[in-house]
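Task: fold both queries, return C-alpha cells.
Query 1:
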Amino acid sequence: MKIGILGVGHLAEYLVQGAAGVEFVLSPRSGDKAARLAETYRCAVAESNQAVVDQCEMVLVCLPAATGLAILEGVQFRDGQSVCSAMAGASWDQLSAAVAPAEAFCAMMPGFANAFSAGPSLLYPGDAEWEAFLALLGPVHRFADGTAFETAAVFGAMSGASIFLLRHLVRWYERQGLDAVVARALVAETFRGNAEVLLQADAGLDEIAVGVTTPGGITEQLVGVLDQCGALAAWDEAMDGVLARMVPGR
C-alpha cells in the first residue's frame, strides 16, 4: 500500500507511526518533521504537493481545515485517484469538488491514539482500500449516510477534550500528594476498564449506571455535585457547538 500525505503536522505523524508497513510519500510542509519521519519510518518526501499527487493513487489529506480546501484546489488530481480527507469541517461535497475528477472520501480519527493502533476511525462513504488502511490504526466505522457521519465526527473534539479531563483528574490526585506515576496509571486504568464495560457488557447504559451506584454512596455523591454544577450538561452544550461549527445549520 502506497499513500501520499498532504500536510505533515501532528495528525500525519501519528498516522505514519501507527500504520506500520505502509509506504508513505510526504508533502514538504513542516520540512523538519517530514525529514524526521522520513528518517525514522523510511517515508519519502516529495518536492511539492503536486509531486505527492503525481506519485500516488491514494492521497490522505491532513491539511489545516482553514486553508485545506484552497490548497487542494491548487493541485491537479486525475481520474482513478482516491482522496481521503481528515480535515474537520470540510464536507464531502466540498472535498469532491476540490479534488475532481478523483474520488473523494471523508475520515475522522482521534490522532494520538492511532499511533498505538488504538483509536477508532470514521469513513464516509465506505471503501475497501481506505478501510484496510484505517484498520491498521484501530477500529473502523463505515458510514453510508453523510448526516450520521457528520454527527459522529464530533468525536474528534470529544476525544481531545477527554485528554484534558484525564489530565485534570490526574492533577487532582497529585495535589492530594499521590505519586504522579501512580496517579496517571490509576486514572488511565480506570477509564480503560470502564470503556471495556461499555464494549463488553450486555447490560444497557442505565442498568450499568445503576449497578455502579450505591444509594447514599460516594459515586452518588460525586455525580450529584457534578450535576449541581452543570458539569455533565456542559458536555452537551459544548458538543452542540462543535457540531454547529463543523456543519452550519445543524
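Query 1 returned. Query 2:
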Amino acid sequence: MEAVGLLEELGVLIDVSHVGRGGVEHILELATKPVVASHSSAFALREHHRNLTDEQLRGIAATGGVICVNFFAGFLTTEKPTIGHLAGHVQYIVDVAGEDHVGLGSDFVQEVFDEKIPACDRPLIIEGLDADIHVPGLEGPAGMPLLTDELVSRGMPEPTIRKILGANLLRVLGDLRA
C-alpha cells in the first residue's frame, strides 16, 4: 500500500505487465495516477495468465493509463500467428478501454531474440509458449508498417492510429513531469 503511494510521489510510472492478477487488481485499487501495462494483450482473445481481463483493461483506462499490446505470438493466439491477430488485440483493447488507452509494447521481436540469445542457449519453451514462433513480418522494427497498414485496412481513423503508435504513451510519460 505504501509502495504505490511512494512510487507515485517519486514520479515512477507503475507497470503491471509482470504482476499477477491479484496484484494488478490491488494496484488499480490504490493508484491515483496513470498505470501502464507495457507489454500485455487481451485475455478475452487469448487466455494466458499474463494477458489482461476486460475489468483490468477498464481499470487501467480509469487511471488514465495505457495498455501496450504485446507482439509475442504466444500471447496473441494458439494458432499460426498473423498480423491480423495482433491488430485484433489492438482493436479489442480500443473497444474495451478506449482509444486514449492503447499503445504498442512489442516486448518480443525475433530479430532482438536472435541477436541477444545464441541458438544453443535458447529455451524452446517460455511460460508454456514456443519462443521461436513470431508474427511473420515482425521479426524486427522494420515490420511496424505492417501493423499500421492492417489498422488502416480495418477502417481505424488516422488520429486513433497516431495515439496507438505513441501519442498515448507520450501523454502518460509527460504527465509524470507535471
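Both queries returned. Flag for query 2: Residues 2-177 form a domain with the TIM Barrel fold (CATH 3.20.20.140).
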